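Allow me, if you will, to draw on your knowledge of protein folds for a short while. The matter concerns a single protein, recorded as an amino acid sequence and a row of backbone structure tokens. Kindly check, if you would, that the fold set down in the tokens agrees with what the sequence suggests. You will find the record immediately after this paragraph.
***
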Amino acid sequence: MNQIVKIGFAVALLLPLANAASADEFKLSSNQRIACSRGLMAGKLNTATCKSYAYLFNARTSEYFRCQVSLALTRDNKEVINVQADGGCTRKQRVFETDSEYSFDATETEPPNTNSFFGPGGYSIWVSDNAKQRVRGCITISSGLGSDISKCLDMTFQ
């Protein structure tokens, strides 16, 4: 009976380790950006709107989420009249088809009034496989017609 208790105890200790080995690991992108704009409205009201983006990456599956938070502040010369905030994360497709151990980075374009021709701009994702020499770069831009265009390319090493 004592032997069965020891085996049961050993299995109970090893089970969480087995589950942890196959568990997803999420990493937050390290170069978040923020962009703000100001607008004047009738009656001397000022509005400032700021948006920031970050990426949450599943380091095992290469699936990622694009997260956005925004804050809009409206004020007159004496007081803040209105504050609105919004945000959330949108699931995106996997970069690689197979599970492995991946590293990544992401960046956003500047606001539309600088270098974006078709709409709110775009972003790029870089993903590398930590187990082998493999890198994939993906760029997504707004088409201006309601859908985003996204392309990924495998890098060649010379």
